[in-house]
Amino acid sequence: MQVDKIRGPQTDQLIDAILALNDREEAYRFFDDLATISEIQSLSQRFEVARMLRLKKTYEKIKNETGASTATISRVRRCLNYGNEGYDEMLGRLYPDEKPFQLPKE
Q: What Pfam families does the record point to (predicted)?
């Protein structure tokens, strides 16, 4: 697992801080201090790309609607296909009524 490469006390501290956030406004303030606007936008974009891929949107539609490069879309798709199911787990919680489809393997 890729995540094993980043595990450690510093990363644990960061994850624990994220888990301790109480609401959206607190999260906005924390992430504003923690990351650049560009970094936050990149993470947000990847999450939306994952959502759109689960809904079987085309690369072209995803690119046009999110501004993501085909390289970013491909990377997110690889994570959906071969990752730790983190995207699916979170998207399933946020959008329980959206029916994901099984992504074909590349």
A: Trp_repressor (PF01371)
| The pLDDT value given to residue 60 | 97
Residues of the chain with pLDDT under 70: 1, 100-106
Answer yes or no: are the C-beta atoms of 29 and 59 closer than 8 Å.
no
For 104, which DSSP code? P
Which residue, 79, 42, 69, is CA-closest to 88?
79
3-class DSSP string for 59-103: HHHHHHHHCCCHHHHHHHHHHHHHCCCHHHHHHHHHCCCCCCCCC
Given this model, what pLDDT does residue 4 score?
84
**Cα–Cα distance, 52 to 49 (Å, whole number):** 5
Q: Which amino acid is at 56?
A: K
Integer-rounded Cα radius of gyration of the chain: 15
Enter the pTM of the model. Answer: 0.87
